[in-house]
Amino acid sequence: MEMNNYYYHFLEQMNKELAFVARELENSIFASPRTMLTHARVFVETILQLVMKVEGLPSRMSLTLIERIDTLNDNGYITREVRDALHSVRMLGNQAAHDTRKFRYSEALESWEAVYEIVRWYVETYGPIEFVFPEYQDPATLGKEHYDISEIEFRLGALEELLNASVGKHDKKFETDDKRKSAAEKTSNPLPPGFTEIRKLIYKNRELEIPHFLRDAFLLPQRFDRSEMYLIRLGAEQQARIMSELPNNLEGLSAHVKRYSAKNEEILFDELKMFIEEEKQRRKITLERPGELFFFFKAEYLIVTEELAKVSLDEDIFSGFPSLLKQLRADQIERVGQLPKELVILAKYDNAGIGTIKSLFEQMKQIQASSTSIHIN
């Protein structure tokens, strides 16, 4: 599903936060029925809070969803069909919140249809008079791009905080305008899957946002020219093997290893910034070119054709690093297609520095270009 082409986009003119939560519900139907069912309940409860506020009905925050349904029903604000739809979302949501069983797509779709009845009633009753509500539409199924369920949960949680603020239900930690603005920026933009910013790394007065897809990324030391040995030493102390092991504040990280200082912390922070930007570019190209095989070297990449993948790793084809080629063949890596996607890993071999790996990468690019030229001619 295109991120700017979700079904409930028309809600943005009434309530952007409501529209964005609906977008995440649609994203989650086939990714995690349980998540959709649980948060659909919160979604419709917020609609009822908005309605009770407009109608001037007593609306304590402690009221349960069933109490809100009964209040609106007893006062004649909802039809039987809307009441039944609300109870359907409520009961399925309660089950999803407490039952450990596997929930089916059909149950999420049942809730999605009930949500449609509720939203249509809300918009037709409290929205613009001239607005014509669209026909029901099934949610988009998972395509080549989809959110990880933990990312959906994060986005939904932040958006629900915004919804709570819109009906006067504030969490103390969320009361400042800056925090609400930050939550809106992280979740309102139509970011590609994986790009939601979920964590910050801090060094002195600088900040570095970590996107979801790098939450547990392996910090391969060879990717960090000036911090390679520092990361190796930190990794031995279980301090920096993966992104999630890094503390939020990098100040003092060097205290875990001998003979390293604050200067190394600063250099690592700078290289982490470059690493994140390189990884973002890599993810974008892999999302744009699904099913392709890539080789990555630093910020560069090479799309591997079937013809290139079959090329033998022999001295008569590749020149300048016979020792590396011999070691690769000893490890049964005999053709280009068997090389690791992350080429800097090859620096683990004896006498194979970054310069050697770059030479291999450039020669593969030349072979690829020559092959393409021949076929074009």
What's the arrangement of secondary structure elements?
Layout: H1 16-28, H2 33-55, H3 65-74, H4 80-98, H5 105-126, H6 149-166, H7 177-188, E1 197-203, E2 206-211, H8 228-236, H9 262-288, E3 294-297, E4 300-303, H10 306-309, H11 322-330, H12 354-376
Antiparallel strand pairs: 1-2, 3-4
Helix pairs in contact: 1-2, 1-6, 2-3, 2-4, 2-5, 2-6, 3-4, 4-5, 6-7
- Oligomeric state of the chains? single chain
Order of helices and strands: HHHHHHHEEHHEEHHH
Note poorly predicted spans: 170-176, 373-377
Helix content: 40-55%
Strand sequence of the main sheet, in spatial order? 1-2
- Summed up, the domain count is 3
Q: Give the DSSP E fraction (strand runs of 2 or more residues).
A: 5-15%
- Head-to-tail CA distance between termini: 39 Å
Give the overall shape, derived from the CA principal axes: elongated
The assigned structural class equals mainly alpha
The largest sheet is: 2 strands, antiparallel
**Average pLDDT score:** 87
Explain this structure.
It is a single chain. The strands form 2 sheets. The chain has a two-stranded antiparallel sheet. A two-stranded antiparallel ribbon has the order 3-4. With about 375 residues, the protein is mostly helical. α2 (about 35-55) runs parallel beside α5 (about 105-125) and α6 (about 150-165) crosses α7. About 30% of the residues are buried. The protein has helices at about 15-30, 35-55, 65-75, 80-100, 105-125, 150-165, 175-190, 230-235, 260-290, 305-310, 320-330, 355-375; strands at about 195-205, 205-210, 295, 300-305. The protein has 3 domains: about 5-190, no CATH class; about 195-290, no CATH class; about 295-375, no CATH class.
